[in-house]
Specification:
The chain is mainly α and 206 residues long. It has 11 helices and no strands. Helices cover 65% and strands 0% of the residues. The longest helix has 21 residues. The N and C termini lie far apart (72 Å).
């Protein structure tokens, strides 16, 4: 059996609930009775009955769900630290600027409770521009092994960063070793490289 993505499952369920609620409403059943029959909160029944179409319900529900997205990293981290109280997590992301309601947070956390029990662990934090610049500007012999390894992996993934590091280190060797005779060759190499920071442009015309 083909498994639907979570978002499509939500859409399918909302459409079915909207159709069922309207069918019972047309039979003059009260909202409380509809809620009991369908196993839904009365507030949910009210939204379903008042919506002009199933698509209105779907659009509003998905919009509420996606408002949590910018704060998923914080929720992942706190959940993996053992904080499972939705109200507390809601208050925490509120302080970070979260504009939505607590229900959307509860819905997001529900997938952790009904899944494997833990949110995906966040990956390692990416180094800042200042950190990478510091690693490049530090003499390789003076760079801690941890940082040298990180810079090596970055250079392997990014050919432009690799070339830039090469230019910077050649210049540093030239200056510290007082090899002025290599300057013209270094300038020629920098001019021929397509790296934006190294491209030498003629000054603007007066």
């Amino acid at each position: 059996m083909v498994q639907l993505p979570d978002e499509l499952k939500i859409v399918k369920r909302l459409r079915e609930q909207h159709a069922a609620a309207h069918q019972l409403w047309e039979q003059e059943m009260s909202k409380a009775a509809i809620g009991r029959k369908l196993g839904l909160h009365q507030a949910t029944v009210r939204k379903l009955v008042n919506a002009r179409s199933a698509e209105d319900v779907v659009a509003k529900s998905l919009q509420r769900a996606h408002v949590v997205d910018p704060y998923i990293g914080h929720l992942h981290r706190r959940w993996n630290e053992g904080v499972r109280n939705a109200a507390q997590l809601y208050r925490e992301i509120q302080e970070l600027g979260y504009p939505g309601g607590e229900l959307a947070v509860q819905r997001h956390l529900r997938r952790y409770r009904t899944g494997r029990g833990y949110a995906p662990a966040p990956g390692p934090k990416a180094p800042s521009v200042r950190e990478v610049t510091s690693w490049i500007m530090t003499h390789p012999e003076h760079l801690r092994d941890e940082y040298a390894d990180k810079l090596h992996r970055l250079r392997e993934r990014d050919p432009e960063l690799d070339r830039l590091t090469g230019h910077v280190r050649k210049f540093a060797v030239m200056m510290t070793g007082r090899h002025g005779n290599r300057l013209e060759d270094w300038i020629t190499g920098a001019e021929q490289d397509t790296l934006a920071p190294l491209v030498l442009r003629p000054p603007p015309s007066p």
